[in-house]
Description:
single chain, 13% strand, alpha+beta, 2 strands, 75 residues, Rossmann fold
Amino acid sequence: MRLASVGIPTLGIWGTHDATVPYSGSENMLKAIPHAELLTIEGGGHNITYMQPSIVGPEITRFLEAQSAPMMGYW
C-alpha cells in the first residue's frame, strides 16, 4: 500500500458526520500511514476546517510546532 510509504508527519482532520469521506474511511487511511495522527471533530461534516476554525486552527498549529525544526523545511 502506498500510504505506508508516507515519510512525513501527517495530521488527518475528520468530522464524524462527513458525508463525502466517511469517518471509518479516515481511520483506515490513517492507520496505513506511519505515525499519523487523527483529529476527530464530533458532529463535524466534510468542510470542518471552515465550519470550526477555532478548533482546527490551534490543532494544526500544535501539530506543526511539535515537529522537529528540520522537518518544518518541507512545509
